[in-house]
Structures are given as structure tokens and as C-alpha cells.
Specification:
8 strands, mainly beta, 12% helix, single chain, three-stranded antiparallel sheet, five-stranded antiparallel sheet, 32% strand
Length: 160
């Protein structure tokens, strides 16, 4: 029994000596990240459908903008491929149909590609939907496209 006790005491002494000789060291590791202003955009087509014989013909499209939170942006709409003196026009062959694009449902403030014509926003890191309010101008002489639709292409510019 004394031998067992002596052996146990020796084992504990060796273990204590090993624990006493262990050491630790610490340091701080820094972590960092950066977030740049980044935006993406897509849009839906503007389809006026059948143009009314009397009165203006309205239509809408959407522009979806997603920007990192806090970043400012502007969206501009060009005058289209068939504009004459900044008047946007839909074309079918040699036939022309005037139209325009606006910032609000009342269709009074033209949406352009510079200055006060731009739409501004601030990114929220989630998609923001901007509505484009279009209108085919009333009082035009309407000519059938004979199966060829009236079309135009408008450049949408997102600046951030």
C-alpha cells in the first residue's frame, strides 16, 4: 500500500511539474472590410398598346435600382433613337408617333438625361422600383403601321 501511495505521489508530482512549465502568449488580430458604392439596374418595356383615336394614351414601365446602403444615385432617360429636337418619337416605317416620359403619374415633369430631368435616390441595399410614366401625345394624325409596330429605344443611365 505504501508503494502504491508513493507511486501515486510521484505521478502527481510529475504532472504538476509539467503544468507549471506550460506558458501562453497572446496577441490581437485586426479584422477589416470595405464596402464600395455599387449599384445594379434593370428595366421593363413600356408598351402603350393600341393608341386611342382621341385623347392621350398612357403607359408605364419600371426601372429597378439596387444600390449599397447610403450611396446616392441618379437615373436619366435619353431622348430615344428617333427624337427630333428632343421630341421622343415612336417609328413604324416612315410613320412617326410622338410620345414622352415623365417622373410622376400626373405626367407634367419630363424625365430627361440631365439636370432637373434626372431622378435621384439613395441606396438602401434593397431593390427600389422607379415608375416611368409614358404618354403618346394627343392630337396626332394616326397612321396604321400595317402590322409593323411603332418602336423606339431609350437609353437608361444609372450614375452612382
Amino acid at each position: 500500500m505504501k508503494i502504491a501511495l508513493l507511486l501515486a505521489t510521484t505521478v502527481l508530482g510529475v504532472a504538476a511539474a509539467q503544468a507549471a512549465s506550460a506558458a501562453t502568449a497572446t496577441s490581437n488580430m485586426s479584422a477589416s472590410a470595405s464596402v464600395s458604392s455599387v449599384c445594379t439596374m434593370d428595366s421593363t418595356p413600356l408598351a402603350f398598346g393600341e393608341v386611342a383615336l382621341t385623347g392621350a394614351t398612357p403607359g408605364t414601365a419600371t426601372i429597378n435600382v439596387t444600390c449599397t446602403g447610403g450611396g446616392g444615385y441618379t437615373v436619366g432617360l435619353g431622348n430615344g433613337l428617333h427624337n427630333v429636337a428632343a421630341q421622343r418619337n415612336l417609328v413604324s416605317g416612315s410613320n412617326i408617333l410622338a410620345y414622352d416620359l415623365f417622373k410622376e403619374v400626373g405626367r407634367t415633369t419630363r424625365w430627361g438625361d440631365a439636370g432637373a430631368g434626372l431622378v435621384s435616390g439613395t441606396g438602401t441595399a434593397v431593390q427600389q422600383t422607379l415608375t416611368v410614366y409614358g404618354e403618346v401625345t394627343t392630337g396626332q394624325t394616326l397612321v396604321s403601321g400595317n402590322g409593323t409596330p411603332y418602336t423606339d429605344t431609350v437609353l437608361v443611365t444609372l450614375t452612382y
